[in-house]
Amino acid sequence: MLIGDVARRSGVSARMLRHYESLGLVRPMGRTEAGYREYSSEDIRRIFHIESLRSLGLSLSEVGRALDDPDFKPAELVDDLIRQTRERIARETELLTRLRRIDAAEPADWEDVLKVVALLQALGSESVGRRQRGALSSAVEVPVPVEALVEAALSETDPNVAGALRWALARSGDDGLALLAEGIGSPVAEVRKRAVQSVAEIPGGKATAVLQDALNNSDIVVRRCAALALGTRGVADAIPTLIDMIVEDTNDADAADALSALASDPALAEQIATRLVDCLAHSTIGSSARRRLTEALAGIPGITTSRALADLSHDEDRAVALTATYILGLRNAR
């Protein structure tokens, strides 16, 4: 079979077939009477083998070794090809993500494109200062796609940069909530914490709904952060978690402040007071926890609280009695 026929049937150009021959990959030994190359069926089979190996990413020199070296073992080369392919996919995926984010920013001209690229690079910089400047700029200068902000916020370890990123996300409104909700469900504890902290700073009913869902999260850190945020938003579902935080001496002052904010609603004030009193009466609660619960009553108005404090002023635990007496004195002085 002549080279033109082989090219048509194999899909390999005549030029490439000649290149294969120059490299010694294919050596058609036959010649026609006119002196043209004539490929045998074995030559054609070898061409298909070459193309099959090339489709796996092998170089032509590697193809030659694979076909001609009897001691050649493919396992190591295949492993190397897998590694190279994964690296290439990672690079291409990163590029695709960057392009999508630039497209989402809806740049009007190339100057806008360059600004977005610069901000994206800043957010991924190893420099803490540069990341912080990028986060602040994204909120007030060039709008960066919220996906990039969420990704940066969920991976940021520096507290100052993290705060700037949360501020930028809060200014973006509800756009990042779906991605942050996914972050709350992450298998990585730090990511879950950063996600719920970010949601806590986003105003509005949609963010509140995400925080309410977070109250049922298996991660106690997530539940506590959500409860603190919900307390300031007037959501009664946060009350049990906030009281538990006071008992467990975990951000107890913040939890008491959140209960006090909730207690601005008279109906909730009575509910909170009743729960605190019930907790104080529980036999398993230790002395320090009872004192903290008594202190928490200071921010809860209403008759239930006043009666409880009057009773607690005679408590067997001197620390509790003194705390209750002091709070009663403050209330009576108003």
TrEMBL record:
Residues 1-69 form the HTH merR-type domain. Gene3D superfamilies: 1.10.1660.10, Leucine-rich Repeat Variant (1.25.10.10). Pfam families: HEAT_2, MerR_1. InterPro entries: ARM-like, ARM-type_fold, DNA-bd_dom_put_sf, MerR-type_HTH_dom, MerR_fam. The keyword DNA-binding applies. Keywords: DNA-binding. It comes from the Bacteria. This is MerR family transcriptional regulator. It comes from Actinomadura miaoliensis.
